Amino acid sequence: MSSARLIYLPLGGAGEIGMNAYVYGYGPQDQERYILVDIGVTFPDMDGSPGVDLILPDMSWLIERRDRLDAIFITHAHEDHIGAVARFPELLEDTPVYARAFTAHLARLKVEEAGLDPKIVRTVSAWPETVTAGPFTVGFVPISHSIPESAGMVIDSPEGRVVHSGDFKIDRTPVVGEPFDEEVWREIAKPGVRALMCDSTNVFSRKEGRSEAELPGEIEALFSDAKGMVVATTFASNVARLKTLAEAADRAGRSICLLGRAMRRMIEAAVATGVLHGFPKVISPEDALSVPRENLMLLVTGSQGERRAASAQLARGKFNGITMKEGDMFLFSSKTIPGNERGVIRIMNQFSEMGVDVVDESAGFYHVSGHANRPDLKTMHDLVDPQMVVPMHGEHRHLREHVKLAGEGRRKGIVAVNGMMIDLSGNEPTVAEYIETGRTYLDGSIQIGALDGIVRDRIRMALNGHVTVTLILDERDEPLGEPWCESMGLAEVGRSRVSLVEILEADLGQFLGRASEKTLADDDKLEQELKRIVRKVSQDEIGKKPEVTIITSRLA
Amino acid sequence: MSSARLIYLPLGGAGEIGMNAYVYGYGPQDQERYILVDIGVTFPDMDGSPGVDLILPDMSWLIERRDRLDAIFITHAHEDHIGAVARFPELLEDTPVYARAFTAHLARLKVEEAGLDPKIVRTVSAWPETVTAGPFTVGFVPISHSIPESAGMVIDSPEGRVVHSGDFKIDRTPVVGEPFDEEVWREIAKPGVRALMCDSTNVFSRKEGRSEAELPGEIEALFSDAKGMVVATTFASNVARLKTLAEAADRAGRSICLLGRAMRRMIEAAVATGVLHGFPKVISPEDALSVPRENLMLLVTGSQGERRAASAQLARGKFNGITMKEGDMFLFSSKTIPGNERGVIRIMNQFSEMGVDVVDESAGFYHVSGHANRPDLKTMHDLVDPQMVVPMHGEHRHLREHVKLAGEGRRKGIVAVNGMMIDLSGNEPTVAEYIETGRTYLDGSIQIGALDGIVRDRIRMALNGHVTVTLILDERDEPLGEPWCESMGLAEVGRSRVSLVEILEADLGQFLGRASEKTLADDDKLEQELKRIVRKVSQDEIGKKPEVTIITSRLA
């Protein structure tokens, strides 16, 4: 098999932050056997994907080759790594999903909710245990991050060893889970590592990262000063942070109540899988109602300002019967992801109107990042000591900067974005092929392509409004009465101080009165002309060119 | 006139950042004479105001009372203070607009563009010159900010002196314009100040603000290291920053070229009004094409990622014939306003793909804020030494925090948001009345109300898609053929793997076949039923409930 090659192909997560999905392959060209590491989602926004429920990587390339897919590995249970695990049933037909216990627990819930068999998800213990999948032997190495049981993957192939960092930070005192263990990584590096695929999220953060263990003191001081109820939010999956917050509250003599489905689900998963011990006793929302507010702390979902989560609902008035009021405190123990600022700021102001004091992480006291900063990335490069570094999980600017960092250590790197198949078999990474990749939208209950125009039409209606024109033509292609117009999302009255719809109807009627038989008989031509007139008249009257639907009914 | 009172009424800018518009009044209740300080705009976004061109304060309260409006004063030429100056012609019929020379120059351009007489804008020199407007005597006190000739207003009334800070920072070495002058403010404070209306934007920034003069060294070092073309962006109105950037480039032996209409307009205004001296020679974009890139610096518009501005166009490929390439540098010498992150990040990644090095202000070397930080606000309180502090220009959380800060200095304060008319005549600020305020949208060429449902309908179409149903009924109210459906922004095929539109038409046809004569004769009832069916069937098929337009044509 001298023609066999080892390839790496990001289908998501490279050139963006979110929806991680990385293929590794080994074998002769076009006969490679594959494994997939992570299968995540990313979240829609009003700017680019209004009305969309979830954004998934386009997996069609892999689905076409699913007979050669030997296993799926999930590094950790963040939605951008696990979120799409049950969204592509075709991939799961003959392919097991491997993860550590906590991650596997959550993966099974997703698989079950999708009506699939949870047995396809298999729990793997930490390195040195390994799983064999086709030509690969794969192990899960515990690594610190902002969720329990995150793992870096050691992927051995006939072409040598690859390390896939997963999302990670260097935290030697992580509160929950295993501390970062240099010794293990040194051992893994010993036989020689061909390539390190490495998290790039924080490559622009120039200071060394901080440990979770730096927070409890600050948070305890904050809580002990608080006079009213204390409410804190963070990512539900940040179990260590939840523990830190709950313990600080407990020491301040407060009862703890979890609000929001995701919050309870995560704590349950962490307890069930044994990663969380000694979490203070939790009371139900009903019981919380009878606890004096100065003796209560709520841990709530919605750190990113999500409109339906507990924090947004508390900010609007009430959640599970609980209301906030003057003298209470609300703590954002989380970073605001770019793009979510408006939602978070809205909540801050709503609380301000109630007289609630809002504390955020801007001072750096109440949050630490889950990703390795630039000096920590350097440490990881040095520990794993790979021949080449392929940055992953980052926007283009992060990947590019990370390649520069690798270069500072005289390691070969390459900026590989989604769809770039990289051949790792040689002395340096090279582009083997360009694969068509993209995004799939879960829109309501249907998966649609990001580029098939459906969402583009919605964006256009949002920007331009919509006009419907109905026209009835009789058996001889003569208009029966006047055309009818209806508008949605447009000013009713424009420059002429007359109803826009009436002006449109009059102008379209005039056009039809003058139109040739040929035009009237030709649906396409007629539609084109009517649209042109609607847009022109609307532009004159209200300064907008609406989207137009023309409905021509011909009486047979 | 013992019943006369001095009132303050924010119509915009209090409880939000943007669209500043503050009314002051003096006289017996409901006979007060008014002045307006600032008349700004705010910018729309896809989340809340898709397709809208500009957001203006709802000025109807003041328009109804325009016979009692004696003058409009503009503190400075930022769009959120001056932007709506020509948008309410009713206000300008008998009312002069006063501003300092640079601001007046730009106000006249706006007034002229709107087809109004630029003579209504009158230039006022700096304090101690004053203008009399009804019962008020008003002076413009130079104060440092991020645009030339910013002013704080001294407003004298029979009830005493009020200071309206405008947007300001304490900068004793501002590069362009007058340094912050404590002595002037001490003089102004001497007769006693009843109230200070004070900028609140940076109340959460705990460190003292930094001076514009701290930047040139850092920027020069950055430029002197650059190998290729250098491009820098900041707000076009930040003339001091433009000068700093241009001088650094000039010293590095680079020719300077301004790209973007706003950039040229601002520099021209600053030169024409004498606020800018010694700006290095500028070359045209055509000439720039023949300058070696290592000898060129562009100053470009679009620091907030605006899609049509020069930086976004350079990031997409070309602007005025100029392209960027590997080895060039792009500097964001500006803060990203919350909500604009996505646009800015998009540009950063586009440049990264070209191999352009992007430098931003995150290290704090290449940007300083134009607003007073918390300690600087304290300094201003102490200098002006008012009886009461009324925070303005801030979201609710900023105003609330600023009242707390005033309380630390044992000064009375009040959180006054848009529409709260505050009586300043007593010993402490009290709410006199609540006025209905809001936002007006410039939508195309028409002003529409923010709450009149037009934009809400557009948002709904963006989230839910749209279906049009056309139905023809004959003279006896019997359906003529089947109903027709057209969808926009929806998946074409759903759960049943058949065209959604065909399923809708079949189900609507069935309903019509069974519908009673009474239902068929009743337009409202019919519409309601058809909509219900469209939503239900769509929900079943594709998991979305679209907006629906029903068009019923009855043949007479």
Q: Which stretches of chain A are low in confidence, meaning pLDDT under 50 for 5 or more residues running?
A: none
What is the number of E strands of chain A? 29
Q: Report strand order across the widest sheet of chain A.
A: 8-7-6-4-3-1-23-24
Shape field of chain A: globular
Average pLDDT metric of chain A: 95
**First CA to last CA of chain A: what distance?**
69 Å
Number of DSSP helical runs of chain A: 17
Main beta-sheet strand count, sense and barrel state of chain A: 8 strands, mixed
Indicate the radius of gyration of chain A in whole angstroms: 28 Å
List the chains of the largest interface with their residue counts: A-B, 66 and 66 residues
- Alpha-beta classification of chain A: alpha/beta
Oligomer: homodimer
Q: Helix amount of chain A, in percent?
A: 25-40%
What fraction of residues of chain A sit in β-strands? 25-35%
